[in-house]
Amino acid sequence: MSEELYAVFIFGVLAIILLALDRMYRITPFLVREGFQGFGIPGVRCGVDLPPCNFPMRCINGFCCDSTKTQQLIDRNPLPVIP
Known about the structure:
By secondary structure, the chain is an alpha+beta fold. Helices cover 37% and strands 14% of the residues.
């Protein structure tokens, strides 16, 4: 295998590892914190062409969410809003 192909292969493997780590450490905790989880499994998808949610959950914005508890929005951008 030539050096160029070896370098491309290494960069590809590193990119896939970084994407998996990003999903594990940044995206999944955000989904759990926002309430997008179903029975301990974060990110259960639902919708028109997907299976429906189990009973205590409802389909909200494409994810199964517990509709009995209200979700408090997280202020990620604390800029003042002036009318």
